[in-house]
Design brief:
With about 90 residues, this protein is mostly helical. The chain contains 2 helices and no strands. Helix 1 runs antiparallel to helix 2. The protein is rod-shaped, with a radius of gyration of 27 Å.
């Protein structure tokens, strides 16, 4: 499974879990204070999970950006070196 699909799958799972937990709390027979406390706790956990996921995505983007930048720099160096070799060879002819 690709990283993109696994991230989407995780986000879908988190949203589904939050909706399910919210519905369970709404329909469960308990006091209003307890229900509000549980909803608040569930929302906090969902937010924390989303923040963690966002941090992982940002980290992956940073890593990919660094890799891409290094690849571009290597390509530029290779191009310069090939131009120098061509110039050197034409000077000897």
């Amino acid at each position: 499974m690709s990283e993109n699909n696994s991230g989407s799958m995780m986000a879908g799972f988190l949203v589904g879990a939050a909706v399910g937990a919210g519905l369970a709390l709404i329909f469960a027979p308990m006091a209003g204070d307890e229900t509000r406390r549980r909803l608040t706790e569930g929302a906090r956990k969902l937010k924390d999970g989303a923040v963690d996921q966002l941090g992982q995505v940002k980290s992956k983007i940073d890593n990919r950006t660094s890799d891409l930048s290094a690849a571009i720099d290597a390509g530029k160096d290779a191009y310069r070196r090939s131009g120098e070799k061509t110039t050197s060879l034409s000077d000897h002819a």
